[in-house]
């Protein structure tokens, strides 16, 4: 698939929203950044596998898993090693071990949903959601390879509606935002929507794409400022608007270059932050958890963002970039 710098710009917007939210900045819906990550991941992973399917007639599941491991594990293990070294001096060693074990085994999503653990590495729940998707999705792509593009798009519309209905039912029945918010099975709608965008046989023309992008941006800005994500009602119904708005942003920037939205998202600082967003996400949260109740939110943001971006830059330049060339030798995989 062809690289789009605007998608890295969207990653930057997503991670900056999450960092600001975790630093207690006055944005009630900062967690929307995670929803944007989910739709992006669904789009990118599906696009990569569909490209491989078109070129080779199949998808190498083993090679796909190895590429994902090279992309995700080294930065995560680096952060966990640092946490393991420091955490026992601040918390009981048993708690630090449980935190690390849950994060390393990608079980944080269900641990957070049912036991509210781990506190200091709770942000890794979203990595667990995506990892479960990566385990299952290649099998789905292979199982549906005989479908036409239109039939596959129709099947993914049904899957998106079913996943959304499941989340709504869970939220309304249990009235427990923890239980619904963190689980893979209740958060997979955005990933499904991203997959749908990747296989859609239709792309809007420039004027329509620009209008979709503006409307989606307005919805997400309003959501960032006002959406109470800890409300079961918001998780049930507001999640639909967030998924569709995130999907609208992606559809807009992949359909038309040169729009105002595209130009903003391709500003070089945003693109670079997007490239380093995975490591920024990994490193910012433990620092924010330690400091956010002792400092003013703006001071916390500065104290958290500066070292997080600095560490992420080092991780990207000296860990992620060298491994990217190794992944490309296995197979081209675009921008992810």
From TrEMBL:
GO annotation (BP), single: lipopolysaccharide biosynthetic process
Keyword presence, Transmembrane helix: yes
Membrane-spanning intervals of the chain: 12-45, 72-91, 151-169, 211-229, 235-254, 266-286, 298-319
One Pfam family named in its UniProt record: Acyl_transf_3
The organism's place on the tree of life at top rank: Bacteria
Domain Acyltransferase: 6-314
Signal peptide: none
GO cellular component, one term: membrane
Keywords on record: Acyltransferase, Membrane, Transferase, Transmembrane, Transmembrane helix
GO molecular function: acyltransferase activity, transferring groups other than amino-acyl groups
Protein's UniProt keywords contain Transmembrane: yes
Protein name per the record: Acyltransferase
């Amino acid at each position: 698939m062809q690289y789009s710098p605007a998608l890295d710009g969207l990653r930057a917007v997503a991670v900056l929203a999450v960092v600001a939210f975790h630093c207690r900045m006055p944005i009630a819906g900062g967690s929307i950044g995670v929803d944007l990550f989910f739709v992006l991941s669904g789009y990118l992973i599906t696009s990569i596998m569909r490209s491989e399917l078109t070129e080779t007639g199949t998808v190498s599941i083993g090679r796909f898993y190895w590429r994902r491991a090279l992309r995700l594990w080294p930065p995560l293990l680096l952060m966990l090693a640092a946490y393991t070294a420091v955490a026992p001096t601040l918390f009981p060693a048993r708690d630090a071990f449980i935190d690390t074990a849950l994060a390393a085994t990608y079980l944080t999503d269900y641990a957070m949903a049912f036991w509210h653990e781990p506190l200091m590495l709770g942000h890794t729940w979203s990595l667990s959601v995506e990892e479960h998707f990566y385990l299952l999705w290649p099998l789905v792509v292979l199982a549906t390879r005989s479908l036409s593009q239109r039939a596959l798009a129709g099947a993914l519309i049904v899957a998106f509606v079913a996943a959304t209905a499941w989340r709504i039912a869970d939220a309304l029945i249990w009235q427990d935002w923890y239980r619904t918010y963190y689980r893979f099975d209740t958060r997979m709608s955005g990933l499904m929507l991203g997959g749908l965008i990747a296989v859609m046989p239709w792309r809007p023309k420039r004027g329509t794409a620009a209008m979709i992008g503006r409307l989606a941006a307005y919805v997400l800005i309003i959501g960032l400022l006002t959406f109470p994500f800890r409300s079961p009602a918001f998780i049930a119904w507001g999640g639909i608007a967030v998924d569709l708005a995130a999907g609208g942003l992606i559809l807009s920037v992949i359909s038309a270059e040169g729009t105002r939205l595209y130009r903003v998202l391709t500003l070089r600082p945003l693109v670079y932050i997007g490239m380093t967003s995975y490591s920024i996400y990994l490193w910012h949260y433990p620092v924010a958890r330690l400091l956010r109740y002792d400092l003013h939110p703006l001071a916390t943001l500065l104290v958290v963002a500066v070292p997080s971006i600095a560490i992420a830059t080092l991780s990207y330049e000296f860990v992620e970039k060298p491994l990217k060339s190794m992944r490309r030798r296995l197979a081209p995989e675009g921008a992810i």
